[in-house]
Amino acid sequence: MNWEQVRRLFLEWFLSEWEEIEKDFSEKTDKLIERLREQNYQIDKQTEELLRELAEELYHKITTLITHVVNAVNKTAKLQKDALALKIAEEVINHRWDDGLKLSERFWDFSQQAMARLKNTIMEGIRYDNGVKALMYKLQYTIEALEQQEFAIVLKEQLPKWLKEFEESTRGLMVNAESRQAWEKIKRKIEKYVEKRSKEGTYYAGRQLLKEIEEALQEGKMELVDKAVKWWVYDKQLYRLKTIVWTETAHAYLKATVELTKDEEEIIGYQWRLSRSHPRADICDVYANVDYGLGRGVHPKNKLPRFPAHPHCMCYFVPVVRRKGMEEREKPIIPESTLESWAPKWLKEYAKENGLSLVDLFNFEEGRFLRKREIGLL
C-alpha cells in the first residue's frame, strides 16, 4: 500500500475542511459582533446562546471530521475494517488528554473562556468610555478658560498632552495592529479638527471643536470595541480552535493508521515521518531519527511513542513491512546531533562540564530533557 499517497489525499481533504470551519467561525463571529452592537455592547442571554451554539456547532463539525478521517484511512488503504474504524473514531472523540479534558469538555471550556474574554473586552470599553468623558470635561474646561487671543496657542500646547492621556485610556482596546490603526485614524481626525478650529480663535470655534471631537470619539469607540471583540473572540480563539482541530485530527489519523494495521503479521513497526510544515527541532526529530535496528525512525509495534507528539503536530506514521535481516534492539539509539539541535543552552553546558552526553539527560519515555531539579540544580 502506498501510504504516502494515503497521507497526501488526507492532507488535501483536511485542509479543505479546515478552510470551511475557519470561514464558518468568521461568519459566526461577525454575527456575534453585530448582536453586541445592537445591544449597545450588553451581553444578554441571546449573546450567551450564540456563543454556546457556536461551540456546539464546532464540536459537531470536528467529531464529524474525526469520523471521516478514520474512515478515509480505512477506505483509501482498502483495509475493509468498517466496524473497527467506527470504534477508533469513538475512542478518539472520548479520549482524555493530560489536562483531564475530552473533546466535548474542551469545547465547553472553549465557550466559557471566549465568554470571559468577551466580558473583559466589554469592560475595557466601558472604562474607556468613562475615561474619555473625564478627558472631555477637562478639555472643555481648558477651552472655556482661554482668552480668545490665546485660544490657538494654548490649545496646540494642551492637545498633545490630552491626546496622550486619551491614548493611555484606550490602550486596553488596542490589542492588535488593526485596532492601533483605528486609534491612529481617530487621532488624525482630531488633529485635523484642532488645526481648522484653532485658526478661528473664538469661543464658538472651541465649542464646535468639542462637538467634533466627541463625535469622532463615539464613532471611534465603536470601531475600537468591535476590533477588540473580534480580536479576542475570533483571532485569539481561532488559534485555540486550530490547536484543538489539528491535534484531534492528527490523533485520529495516527490512531487509525496503527489500530487498523497492527494485526497484520507482515507489519513490524511504524516509521515516524516529519510533517513538511514542521517548523523547528523538537521531540518529533527524535522520533524520526531514533534507531531500534529496524531503520531510521521505525518504532516497533509495542514501543510506539505518544502521539500526537505536541499540539499542532501533523507528523505521521507509515507502516513498515518486515524485511530480511531486520533485528530489533531492546533499547533505541538516539543520535546526539538530533538532541543537540533543540537542547536548552544550560543543559548543553551542564553536560559538557560533567562529561555527559545529552542522551544521558533525556527522558525518552516522556519525550523531554531532564529538568534542573531532576539533576540537582534546584
- Across the major sheet, the strand order is 2-1-3
Helix/strand order: HHHHHHHEHEEHHEE
Classify the secondary structure makeup into a structural class.
Answer: mainly alpha
Uncertain segments: none
Strand content bin: 5-15%
Q: Please count the helical segments.
A: 10
Profile the largest sheet. 3 strands, antiparallel
Rg calc: 30 Å
The N- to C-terminal Cα distance equals 51 Å
Overview of this structure, please?
With 378 residues, the chain is mostly helical. Helices cover 64% and strands 5% of the residues. It contains 10 helices and 5 strands, in the order H-H-H-H-H-H-H-E-H-E-E-H-H-E-E. The strands form 2 sheets. The protein has a 3-stranded antiparallel sheet. The chain has a two-stranded antiparallel ribbon with strand order 4-5. Helix 1 (3-38) packs antiparallel against helix 2 and helix 4 packs antiparallel against helix 5 (151-170). The longest helix is centred in the middle third of the chain and has 57 residues, at 203-259. The protein starts with a helix and ends in a 9-residue tail after the last strand. The mean pLDDT is 81.
Note the main attributes of this structure.
single chain, 378 residues, mainly alpha, three-stranded antiparallel beta sheet, two-stranded antiparallel ribbon, 10 helices, 5 strands, 64% helix, 5% strand, elongated
Describe this structure in a few short sentences.
By secondary structure, the protein is mostly helical.
List the helices and strands and how they pair.
Layout: H1 3-38, H2 45-76, H3 82-93, H4 103-145, H5 151-170, H6 177-198, H7 203-259, E1 267-273, H8 283-289, E2 298-300, E3 316-321, H9 336-340, H10 345-353, E4 362-363, E5 368-369
Antiparallel strand pairs: 1-2, 1-3, 4-5
